[in-house]
Amino acid sequence: MSETKLHQIRRRFSDAYRARHYTDCIRLATEGLQLAEANHDVATQTLMQVWLGESHWQRKETEPAVAALSRAAAAEPPADPGDVFNALSTLLNIAILERPLAEARALIAQGHTHLARHDQQRSRHMLDLSEGDLAARRGDWPAAQHHYRAAYEHQHGDTGSPRFTLASYQIKLAEASFMLGDAKALSDWCAQIHATPKLVEGDRLRAEQARLLCYRAGIAEPAGARGGAAATARRLLRWLEEIDGHQAEFARDAMQVLLREGDWLSVETWLNYPGIGDNPLMRGDLHLARARQALGLPALDPDWSTATPHPEVTANPAANANGLSEKTDPQTGTKPSIKTGSKTIAKARDNLEAARAHYIDKQTWAAHEDQRLETNHHRQRLDARLQRVEALTQKLP
């Protein structure tokens, strides 16, 4: 009877996870763990602990996630080494986002040791992906791209967890291309993601995210475009409302597109949704975008315009070191002029002051992240935004 019940739990968990119904996943994994413990089934206990921890983590419930995953990561045979490695991999993902750099690096080393010990080098792509994520968090996008490309190449030999579909790797390379200012590569990866079979619900989100990255980079017609930039962003955000979990990257790109399109109301609305509006800089970006529009200046993506191109890739020709200069109109050969008028200037000044206050308020967050990851990346991003605010403020009459 218990074996039949466990089989049902496995099937229902798989369906719930694919649909991103993580609350149901937690309930099913807990039920399965209790059955496995009653049967003294160490292998199934370990699997259920992995599923339980992963489901908690998808909801950003760190403490119960780490508790379950740590038990699984310490399991010995007859536990499946693959399940143990999955626990290590998710603990590493948590460390990248929340723990000191040394802890993340120790888990990477532990993961490599585990793979070598159990002759599971086919799964090294999961570590490659995490090493890319760590480099990205530290602002080292050339290194991130290197690790993501290795992950993409190594994953061909592994048919493991359904969490890691082809699009999971392609979207990382698309994001790296965006951050490195490589419009051609970004467009190519978007086309590949569009053509890739969508094996799980998340793959559809990744395809939309790739299109959003293209819109952020000024690519007007990305592969699979449907309804334009703002419609794509709103469609993805409504999608995020219907699923459990925190989807920071999806929400970030959607709201940056809405800022580019001037849809302030939608951004304000979704900034209040937990798991969607959690980006620490977005509210300041909203005020800065409003100030630019009030002054008659074109939209400027805060990350695309400050991308530092890798010397070996084709860079975004509009990118510049600090994002302070305005693009020249190709038809008139002139740069956009600032609108004047007391109401216009007052509105712009109010928004610039609000942006400045928000960015300054986030300096403690940036310092904490930089200390945690032993970098200066977050402070540099914040300083670049503050420089834009100051540059526009100085231009006001």
> Largest sheet, if any?
none
Strand runs, count: 0
Nearest-angstrom radius of gyration? 23 Å
Strand coverage percent: under 5%
- Unreliable stretches: 306-324, 329-333
Instruction: Note the gap between the termini.
Output: 79 Å
Biased composition (Polar residues): 317-342
Organism: Halochromatium salexigens (Chromatium salexigens)
Protein name: Tetratricopeptide repeat protein
Region (Disordered): 303-342
Layout of strands and helices, then pairs:
Elements (H helix, E strand, L loop, with lengths): L1 H17 L3 H17 L3 H17 L3 H12 L7 H18 L2 H17 L6 H14 L3 H14 L11 H14 L3 H13 L5 H16 L11 H14 L6 H14 L2 H7 L11 H13 L47 H20 L1 H11 L3 H19 L2
What does this structure look like?
- Residues 303-342 are annotated as: Disordered.
- This is Tetratricopeptide repeat protein.
- Residues 317-342 have a biased composition (Polar residues).
- 67% of the residues lie in helices and 0% in strands.
- It has 397 residues and is mainly alpha-helical.
- The longest helix is centred in the C-terminal third of the chain and has 20 residues, at 342-361.
- 43% of the residues are buried.
What's the short version?
The chain is an all-alpha fold and 397 residues long.
What structural keywords apply?
mainly alpha; TPR-like_helical_dom_sf; Tetratricopeptide repeat protein
